[in-house]
Amino acid sequence: MRFWILENISLHGKGLEKNMEDRWITDWEPSNRFPLYTRANAGEILPNPISPLGWDLVWETGVSRGWADGCHRWGTFTPDETDPDRPDYVSCFGGYVYLNAGLIRLQGVRSPGMSAEAMDAAFLGNHPDVPPYVSQEGDERPDLTAKIEETSAWVMSLEELPNELTEDREKILSIRDRRPDLDSMSELELVEHARSMTPVIREFFEPYYVYGTASATGPTILGQLCGEIDPALPGRLISGLGGIDSAPPSYAMWELSRQVNDSSDITSAFDEGISGLQERLATSVDGEALLSDLAQFLSEHGARGPTEWDAASETWEVKPESVLAAIDAMRHADETLSPANRHAKAVADREAAEAEVRTIFDGNDEAIGALELGLRTARVLVPGRERTKLTAMMTIHEIRLPIYELGRRMAERGVLDTPRDIWLLRNAELEEFINDPESMTEAIRERRKEFSALSDLQDPFIINGEVPPLSEWAQRKLSVEPAEAGEELPGVPGSPGVVTGRARVITDPGDPRGLEPGEILVAPITDPSWTPLFIPAAGVVVEVGAPLSHSVIVSREFGIPCVTGILDAASKITDGAIISINGSTGTVTIAELPE
């Protein structure tokens, strides 16, 4: 399989001219000053190659520059240290998004009480491909260390969410509410509207970086204070915090699932499966009412969905069938598993944990002071991180919808095979495509084959200075030996608690068939599109995920035991096996294999 770089676009009906090289069209050059990159963390939010147009419109000029703005605001770096046009904080190699591990290390060097080695331990673990840190001239910057200290003092002084987060949310809500009628716009107007959102991505990613970085403050303090007493305590102390913006869709879907159960007509329509469900619902009064409420749900929450950091993602508004599938899974759960009840139990456990810790540290004013600081900063900043993320997601959605409308029109004309193929284009190609789309049809089909082939490649965890030619990238493993009965799989503690139940391996949140209330959800990765599936589940196991990843935050909000970082969990854990998970120690034990 050959991969190619776009050199130019023919203006004479020849389509996209290709210069055959062994790399992908969106790839950047590695930084000379900071040549070390990693898939750590990036692989959690974008496990697959990112669409070319999604990279161009969101990441290349939006996220990358907003990331730089956030780092400058935090105080870790100055603008002259990275390329202003292509900031080195993120990059694209082989179509995969990478983070700059060299800059992450430098953040440790310049931050009080941290080090490059500490950042390696947090982000990279013990991966064998990680080279040792070697200090360079200019790494230590006392002036920036002082700035970081000022920022940290501000973070620890926060009593509530700052006004800027409310103002940003009001701005994106206003943009959403004033969205033009896409159906009536010309093709060029659709493109220009999408492009107009890229500067807003940059604007909103700055606070996402700042509050995302700050959100680790509370959990870190509580972990250092209580982790050795009981590894479950730090997680219990930040469970059921409330104000988590990933949670409201689950409450809304729960209510929709109750509508299903309250109507025999709707229940019968769901019993026939998701395919054709909307058409069947439209034939009854109750069904029409549900569809009306579904439309309202999509208007409010439609920006969320699988791999939502790629604008090409078929989010809930683009693919409502995925919402109906989640409602279908929820409708079988009884009231004890409602989001409100699960959250209430999580709140009660958090309050009980606080009481335990206060008793332990009674009379120790220093420890009580640290406890109060950790609880307060977690209460403010963990929800703050989720708030800034949702604001960014809503902005990406305002890019997604007009481009999908363009794709829909071209698919109706027969120019594209599917509306999603529009995302295979580059930003610079859009005008030419609009002017003469038929001339590019075959080239786009060829590009789709090339793009699909990228997903079969094993993305290197570390890239250091030189990007291996794509022909040298290994193929992904097609199969993994399943774990045996009695085997213990090590992972990362997520949400505390111990539970035993039947494993249900789900690889697509839009197709959760087989998940029954009380079973343990096993998934390769989770994002907000998976959140509704947490509600009927007794526990959650995920292949990848950091301490403040989506799966962990949502599990803690609803008091659901969660373990992340179980390598190849969806392959190693046999569907239907009885497993025990310990969210405090981060282990999964295979108790019994299915017959």
Which labels suit this protein?
595 residues; alpha+beta; eight-stranded mixed β-sheet; four-stranded antiparallel β-sheet; 22 helices; 14 strands
Please give the structural blueprint:
Blueprint: E1 4-9, E2 16-20, E3 36-38, H1 42-45, H2 52-74, E4 90-93, E5 96-100, H3 101-110, H4 116-123, H5 142-157, H6 163-177, H7 187-195, H8 198-214, H9 217-226, H10 233-237, H11 248-262, H12 264-271, H13 277-281, H14 285-301, H15 321-330, H16 339-360, H17 365-412, H18 430-435, H19 441-454, E6 462-464, E7 488-490, E8 492-495, E9 498-505, E10 520-523, H20 531-534, E11 539-542, H21 550-558, E12 562-564, H22 569-572, E13 578-582, E14 587-592
Parallel strand pairs: 9-10, 10-11, 11-12
Antiparallel strand pairs: 1-2, 3-5, 3-6, 4-5, 7-14, 8-12, 9-13, 13-14
Helix pairs in contact: 2-8, 3-4, 6-17, 7-17, 8-17, 9-17, 11-12, 11-14, 11-15
Describe this structure in words.
By secondary structure, this protein is of the alpha+beta class. It is built from 22 helices and 14 strands. The chain has helices spanning 42-45, 52-74, 101-110, 116-123, 142-157, 163-177, 187-195, 198-214, 217-226, 233-237, 248-262, 264-271, 277-281, 285-301, 321-330, 339-360, 365-412, 430-435, 441-454, 531-534, 550-558, 569-572, and strands spanning 4-9, 16-20, 36-38, 90-93, 96-100, 462-464, 488-490, 492-495, 498-505, 520-523, 539-542, 562-564, 578-582, 587-592. It has an 8-stranded mixed beta sheet. A 4-stranded antiparallel beta sheet has the order 4-5-3-6. A two-stranded antiparallel sheet has the order 1-2. A hairpin with a 2-residue loop joins strand 4 (90-93) and strand 5 (96-100). The longest helix is centred in the middle third of the chain and has 48 residues, at 365-412. It is globular and about 75 Å long.
